[in-house]
Design goal:
The chain is mainly beta. The protein has five helices and 48 strands. The N terminus and C terminus are likely disordered.
Length: 811
């Protein structure tokens, strides 16, 4: 509570200070009409510096066509106006030489362009991979090969992202990735996040932003950076929408469908979309483990598991924005996901002696049925004070996550003659409930000399209640296993405040910020009556500077400090049985991990870019394995790796070989080094890896035919205790757009060489094992999308909501 009082006091005090610095200056007013004397309400009006035509401010006219620019300093200016279907307008230069002067521009009438807009065909489109100064952008909606895919499958072929189908994502060999949905962190993490990403069709996604060095205005969580998934938003006036259907076929069918509807007028914007995804997947998992006695190999386990994974997910999003006044917008947003699926696995293990002679075999059937219901609501408010960009935004969020996994395991051992020697039946029943509440407010205040100051506060409360019961089935009766059953309650309150300053000069830009976060946690194991409390305050500075060398070349330097808190599942001490010889459990004593990240960038000819970065982390949270040579049981647990360093060099090269072909190459070389005392030994795991992602787009004809070829390769890399072996993917697709632009047909093939698989090697102390996991990644998909509605485009509202880091850790 004390932390909340501090942050509120901070914002009130700061707000009073910055309000005293609001610019006072001259004003320019005017009016813009179309040739038919109707107001040009959709025009874009730019105030330009006369000397270099640099845009100083942007304005949008009101319903009568009136516009104004406020708080201008002395100088020489001109105005440009653009409007679809009309010639661009430039005013004569004018001067402002004293304060508080009002310059009135005569009424401007735009002249219609001589080109017939209906006959204009736009051929250019954004590349699949696009690098900006502070992020890498994956333009999903422009990708033919993403048709019929899920968001997870798009992430699998995105630069630097490694997808672990069981436990989550990492970026360039680093765990601790914050996944955001439309600017706010996802409520899920780990296996639950993977499940959600599998359920979302790529057809609903506009782009994915990969941000490796966020500023202080973002939550400090996520050592590896941020992956921000942006859903499509319809910007057209009137009633508009789309319908889509996809069918994929690999070893198993993968049907999905989606629909969206949007209504917009001057006062209201009502929108919604729904998607159903019902794929069937299958995973083959192979593992070889060696067990030792006195340093010598005593036995070898060869295990293969096939798991069928059918699922059905329903995703619903509903929202409304009310443009209450010209300067005030309020909105409400509801997201709901209803998921049910099962994992029906059968494992066969051959246990051999050191000479390779079979000793006995084991067979385990594992059936996990899971139902999840996730609902999140958001109320948002935005008020723009004036045309200088001074604004206040606020968000209130509330969410609930309910999961009810039920597991049945039957294990049976056989001798060398295949005679049964023992058997065991076990069951588990888990109830998981997570409640998340969040409030945030952000204030932007322009300052003199092309500068601005941003400030904000945020507070969140999380309660996770997990009650799991394990049973041994004896004589047909369920007998509670008190050694594994547990009731775990975790509460967390995070309070934060930040300042961020940005200043633009003639040839450079400077940004620096400071974020403060106060964290208060309580972890209680009800069964054993154990409680673990933490209370700490941390500071997270960041800065970035950009220097323009000339019109086409610039350099940049940035720094940020980040934190990675353990997910709720990683803190959960439950001991989950995977098979007869493998357990997964958490650790409530995990410490948060801190990371310092430095990045230098160079952009050449306004399109080629080179980025060099250095990352240093302490107490990195990553999964490790412990092995008991006596019981032959391996345990997967999260642990703090004391030291981590990373050096990375990335390049992005777009080019056009012909008018009908555009390509983009994104490649990087990365050195990862992990070092830590671990399990009584000293872990040192380092490796230099490289990856390349090449996208090629082909314009086949002027009648709407186009094609795409994507190639991705990643060499083996170090990750915590593991070495992840190389993987690759080649995808190909073709697209046809109808003459009226309303229908889009796509046919694509994913992973056509069947090279996308995950193989892992571990050699540490008494552990010597390797795995190989393959899944139904090679398939063909047909996709059809129909768009309907008006084509008049309105100015889009940009907004993010306030559910922060602790929500993405829900698990």
């Amino acid at each position: 509570m004390k932390g909340i009082i501090y942050t509120v006091f901070f914002l009130i005090f700061f707000g009073a200070k910055v309000n005293a610095q609001i610019i006072t200056g001259s004003k320019v007013t005017g009016k813009v009409l179309l040739e038919n004397n109707l107001p040009a309400k959709n025009a874009t009006i730019s105030l330009l510096n006369q000397k270099d035509s640099a845009a100083i401010k942007i304005a949008v006219p009101d319903d009568a066509g009136n516009f104004e620019f406020e708080n201008l300093k002395a100088g020489n200016y001109l105005i440009s106006i653009s409007h679809t279907g009309y010639k661009k307008y430039f005013s004569n230069p004018f001067s402002i030489d004293d304060k508080n002067k009002i310059e009135n521009i005569n009424t401007i009438t735009l002249v219609q362009s001589s080109n017939n807009l209906a006959e204009v065909t736009v051929q250019s489109k954004k590349p699949f991979i696009e690098r900006k100064a502070d992020r890498l952008i994956v333009n999903v909606e422009n990708s033919i090969t993403s048709a019929g895919s899920t968001v997870l499958e798009v992430l699998e072929k995105s630069p630097g992202i490694f997808v672990n189908q069981e436990s989550g994502l990492n970026l360039k060999g680093k765990s601790g990735v914050t996944v955001m949905i439309d600017g706010k962190p996802s409520p899920l993490s780990g296996a639950d996040l993977i499940t959600y990403l599998k359920s979302v069709p790529a057809a609903n996604i506009e782009r994915i932003d990969i941000i490796t060095n966020p500023s202080a205005k973002y939550d400090a969580s996520g050592n590896a950076g941020i992956i921000d998934i942006r859903f499509k938003k319809d910007k057209r006036m009137g009633t508009n929408g789309s319908l889509g259907i996809n069918y994929g076929q690999g070893k198993f069918p993968k049907p999905s469908a989606n629909a969206s509807l949007n209504y917009r007028n001057k006062k209201w914007n009502l929108f919604g979309n729904y998607a159903i995804n019902a794929p069937k997947n299958g995973t083959d998992f192979f593992i070889t483990r060696k067990f030792f006695n006195g340093g010598n190999v005593e036995s070898v386990f060869d295990q293969n598991t096939f798991t069928a994974q059918p699922q059905v997910s329903n995703n619903l999003k509903l929202g409304a924005d009310l443009y209450a006044t010209k300067k005030t917008v309020v909105g409400v947003l509801v997201n709901a996901t209803f998921y049910q699926g099962k994992r029906d696995g059968l494992s066969n293990s051959d246990i051999k002696d050191a000479a390779g002679v079979l000793q006995y075999t084991n067979q385990t059937s594992n059936l996990l049925k899971d139902k999840q219901h996730n609902t999140f609501g958001n109320f948002n408010y935005k008020h723009t004070f004036d045309s200088t960009g001074r604004e206040l935004t606020a968000d209130v969020d509330f969410g609930k996550i309910n999961a009810k996994p039920v597991q049945d395991i039957f294990s049976q051992s056989f001798d060398v003659n295949n005679n049964p020697t023992s058997s065991k039946t076990q069951k588990s029943d888990q109830q998981s409930n997570i409640t998340i509440k969040s409030f945030k407010a952000d204030y932007v205040n322009p300052l003199k000399g092309n500068a601005k100051l941003e400030a904000g506060i945020k507070t969140s409360f999380v309660t996770t209640d997990n009650d799991v019961k394990f049973f041994d089935v004896i004589g047909g009766n369920n007998v509670l296993d008190v050694t594994r059953s547990n009731h775990f309650i975790y509460t967390e309150n995070v309070n934060a405040a930040y300042l961020n300053y940005n200043k633009e000069f003639k040839k450079n830009e400077l940004q620096f910020g400071l974020r403060m976060e106060h964290t208060n946690t309580k972890a209680t194991q009800v069964t054993s009556n154990q409680t673990n409390r933490r209370n700490y305050v941390q500071l997270f500075p960041s800065f970035a500077v950009t220097q323009k060398l000339n019109d086409k070349n610039e350099i940049s330097l940035s720094y940020s400090r980040r934190i990675d808190r353990a997910t709720y599942r990683e803190l959960n001490p439950f001991k989950i049985l995977v098979d007869s010889y493998t357990f997964v459990l958490g650790d409530p004593d995990l410490k948060p991990s801190l990371t310092d990240s430095y990045q230098f960038g160079y952009t050449f000819d306004s399109k080629y870019s080179v980025t060099a970065s250095f990352v240093k982390s302490k107490d990195v949270i990553t999964d490790v394995f412990e092995q008991d040579d006596q019981t032959k049981i391996s345990s997967q647990i999260p642990a703090n790796i004391q030291g981590f360093k990373q050096y990375d060099l990335s390049v992005n090269i777009p080019f056009s070989a012909k008018k009908w072909m555009t390509s983009n190459i994104n490649s990087s070389v990365t050195y990862n080094k992990y070092s830590s005392a671990l399990q009584g030994g000293q872990l040192t795991n380092n490796f230099t890896s490289w990856d390349i992602n090449m996208t090629n787009s082909f314009l086949l004809s002027k009648k709407g035919w186009s094609a795409e070829l994507n190639v991705f390769y990643q060499s083996k890399q170090a990750w915590g205790q593991f070495i992840i072996k190389n993987l690759a993917q080649v995808s190909l697709g073709v697209q046809k757009i109808s003459k009226d632009k309303k229908s889009v047909f796509k046919l694509s093939g994913a992973d056509i060489l069947s090279t996308n698989h995950i193989a892992v090697i571990v050699k540490y102390l008494n552990q010597d094992w390797h795995t190989d996991r393959t899944w139904d990644s090679r398939y063909v998909t047909f996709s059809y999308t129909y768009r309907f509605g008006k084509n008049t485009v309105a100015k889009a509202r940009q907004r993010t909501s306030g559910v922060e880091d602790e929500k993405k850790r829900a698990n």
